[in-house]
Design a protein that fits this description.
alpha+beta; 15% helix; disordered N terminus
């Protein structure tokens, strides 16, 4: 899964910073997030309603009277657009202060991905894991699930169904189609692993979170990504230039993050 060097503005190939002395990393999925993020903060592109990761923090709103309910109806009587078998309890709109009691870990290639029997994903259709609660926890779990699939040979199946429509998706698809597929190998979590998150913004229509990753050498890295609620589920929202993540950096430790529970795979 090691990403390749990228072409500079002059047309010459140059090493990204993680291949330069002092920046060598070992976590394959973190490197993929870095590659897809482009190492650029597209601040000017993200100031409208199509903004991707890194929007200004906002407080969680009060409950939406049209939120979906487990019965398959919205509380205003309208039909829930979710597919058959997808029903979640969306009543808890608070950002969770700790890992949920039902958190488990599901293996995808060499990654361990956090999942919850109540917050999602509830449906598994091959590589597409869907049906997340319309809650802060559901949004964060969707971010982990979708971003972990974007480097391997099955990325297009996920992107077609789980990346929000718009110019950002078009830009991402065009760029990603030119990159080689790199399926991960090795023991799950051996290169590095997700260990927590920090919610930066949340409403019932969008969420932006910073994902915390512990790399195999013990260092901690973060990447910021966003989802939007579209067609009855959370979908990954790229920036207008097609970047899935941004603000990729090292941090000194896990302080200030909500940490996931123990990893047992599954």
């Amino acid at each position: 899964m090691m990403p390749r060097s990228r072409r500079s503005g002059s047309g010459e190939w140059e090493k990204p910073f993680w291949q330069q002395p002092g920046w060598l990393l070992s976590a394959g999925f973190f490197l993929v997030l870095a590659l897809l993020g482009g190492f650029v903060v597209f601040a000017g592109d993200d100031e409208d309603t199509n903004a991707g990761p890194g929007a200004e923090a906002t407080a969680a709103p009060s409950a939406d009277p049209t939120r979906s309910t487990p019965s398959g109806k919205q509380s205003n009587g309208a039909e829930d657009p979710r597919p058959e078998g997808c029903r979640t309890d969306d009543s808890d709109q608070a950002v969770p202060p700790k890992s949920p009691a039902d958190l488990k870990w599901k293996v995808y290639q060499a990654d361990l991905v956090p999942v919850s029997a109540t917050a999602g994903p509830l449906l598994y259709d091959g590589v597409v894991w869907s049906c997340f609660a319309r809650t802060p926890l559901g949004a964060v779990l969707a971010l982990h699930s979708i971003t972990s699939k974007m480097s391997g040979s099955e990325w297009r199946s996920v992107a077609d169904r789980q990346v929000a429509a718009g110019p950002g998706k078009d830009a991402f698809m065009a760029t990603r189609s030119k990159e080689a597929d790199e399926d991960a190998a090795g023991a799950p979590g051996s290169d590095g692993t997700y260990i927590g998150f920090s919610m930066l913004t949340y409403t019932k229509d969008q969420a932006t979170a910073m994902l915390l990753i512990r790399i195999a050498d013990g260092k901690y890295g973060t990447a910021t990504a966003s989802v939007v609620w579209e067609d009855g589920d959370w979908k990954l929202r790229p920036t207008l230039k097609g970047s899935l993540t941004e603000n990729i950096s090292f941090v000194g430790g896990p302080e200030g993050f909500v940490l996931w529970g123990g990893k047992d795979g599954g």
